[in-house]
Amino acid sequence: MAEKNTSFVLEKAGQVQYEDRPVPELKHDTDVLVNIKQTGICGSDVHYWVSGAIGDFVVRAPMVLGHESSGIVSAVGAGVTSLAPGDRVCLEPGIPCRVCTFCKSGRYNLCPDYAFAATPPYDGTLAKYYVLPHDMCFQLPAHVSLEEGALIEPLAVAVHIVKRADVRPGQSVVVFGAGPVGLLCAGVARAFGAAKIISVDINEERLAFARKFAATGTFAPSKTPAAESAKRLIDEQELGVGADVAIEASGAEPSVQTAVHVLRSGGTYVQGGMGKPDVSFPVTAMTTKELVVRGSFRYAEGDYPLAVQMVADGKVRVKELITKMVPFDKAEEAFSDVKAGKGIKILIGGVA
Questions:
Q1: Is 0.85 surpassed by the pTM of this model?
Q2: Which of 159, 196, 266, 280 has its CA 20 to 30 A from that of 63?
């Protein structure tokens, strides 16, 4: 009897089920078949599960969820020399076209034909097996666990954000949002040499974790106008004329506004969090302070290797973010926990 590829499938908003699908084939000599062993749950996975859409990306047909994964190489194409069966890898879960201007310049995250896992119409990694090109599979050092490997994906997101912010040694960085990506941004900023790293969140438990993880200070905003909140933050954290860098990793409109006001003139603002499609933005403050304003989307050239190296060198302790691990047959329970805001990062084990 042929082996099956058991998968966790979103049928439509609010409805998931397990399906035995065919094991994916190696379509190209450069492909690698990976036996998935650990998968983290991202907010986007939960959003698709709850509402069936994120912006223009709408689930119109059953789709396998998940994209934060690690596993063990099961088979390789004839042209693959960098990996072999048995190798432990983390997955960069997308396939760019490789020929457009963005791909050729190393900014393949902006490729208009990027086939990204668990983004309609492309299936994700919550399955027994998944196929990727060999250069999208990164071998894990012997001392890095598969659990840590599953956190390389969100860490690469944070690496890209902090690189977009051009964080430099000695700078002050304020990170809005102490969810997984916000916490990892704080960790990467610290590794890049930032002198002050302030984590901002309304959840006191997450702020307490941020202080242990990477932040040099924390701030809990109150329901006051953004400019007032920013002034209190600057005063309490002794940021002088304002922060050098503000990273918005929550997507919350009040955080977007406060982040602009907390910056010094000439400072850098990076939007990494996803929230409402349109928000009220302090454009006058942005203009008169001549802020550098940038967006950040997924990851690009060099971000994954750097993320792996940071974990290998102990510069970002991703394992500390793991608060729960569940077997594959409890995947929906894990999704419910993430939706309820329980813990920081929950992992789903591979198919037994």
A1: yes
A2: 159
